[in-house]
Amino acid sequence: MSDKKISTYEAGFYGLMCLIAPVLFSVSVFFWKDGEYLPTGAVLMNLSMVFWVPVMFYLFGLIKEKAPLYYCIGLVYALYGTVIGGTAFGYLGFFTNIFEISHREYLEKLATHTLGSNLLLFWAGPAFPLSLLILSIVLLRKKALETWICILLMIGAILFPVSRILRIISIAHIADVFLSVPIVCTGWTLMKKQRSGTIKKPIPFRHSNN
Q1: How many structural domains are present in the chain?
Q2: Over the chain, what HEC string results?
Q3: Which tens digit of pLDDT belongs to each residue from 71-109?
Q4: What is the extent of the structural domain holding 188?
Q5: 209 lies in some domain
Q6: Is the pTM value of this prediction over 0.85?
Q7: Among 42, 53, 118, 179, which is most exposed with the fewest C-beta within 10 angstroms?
């Protein structure tokens, strides 16, 4: 899905999603305590994942024609990390806070449900940044986005899990900046093109019967 193959309306839509998703995502970290989401942060985190879904569709659409196999497999894995992994930790922070469950206590409870905990949290969580890391490399190799955007996205995808594992808020903010800047710039560019009306061709998902 190159910029030349999406309609003006869709450019505006994807551009808006690229603006909202990382902003909500970054703001959520301001509502951290001891490396975990407070209820407000958890809500912002989960809401951001709603907007990250179309962002993923747009970014993967950029390499659909150049890397069709990765598009199919990578998108499913990315959605797993976004829909399951991203929201799972948001819900975890929300409910452990309102029910006053300690970090140690919920880890002990999760250990009694190993497979379910891994599928919903410990495997799904890393899928989000890992998907962005691999995607940024593919986008760079296929020259689907500007080099600096791909590099910033790559750095952010690496720093993201590091900041969450170490539970250091300053590193988390830095990681979010590296993730947010390239996505926001991409969204802003799409919005500018939408306003100027330079994108008029339909997206490639619509096939004619001829």
Answers
A1: 1
A2: CCHHHCCHHHHHHHHHHHHHHHHHHHHHHHHEECCEECHHHHHHHHHHHHHHHHHHHHHHHCCCCCCHHHHHHHHHHHHHHHHHHHHHHHHHHHHHHHCCCCHHHHHHHHHCCHHHHHHHHHCHHHHHHHHHHHHHHHHHHCCCCCHHHHHHHHHHHHHHHHHHHHCCHHHHHHHHHHHHHHHHHHHHHHHHHHHHCCCCCCCCCCCCCC
A3: 999 999 999 999 999 899 999 999 999 998 988 999 999
A4: 3-195
A5: no
A6: yes
A7: 118
